[in-house]
């Protein structure tokens, strides 16, 4: 469960970075 939690948080961070690098495109 801890692994899945960390993966989820990392996925959110990566998604945020992608959106930011794309100028807010979603």
TrEMBL record:
Its domain of life reads Bacteria
- Which Gene3D superfamilies does this entry report, sorted A to Z? NAD(P)-binding Rossmann-like Domain
Q: What is this protein called?
A: 3-ketoacyl-ACP reductase
Protein species of origin:
Bacillus wiedmannii
């Amino acid at each position: 469960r801890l692994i899945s939690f960390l993966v989820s948080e990392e996925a959110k961070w990566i998604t945020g970075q992608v959106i930011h690098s794309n100028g807010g495109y979603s």
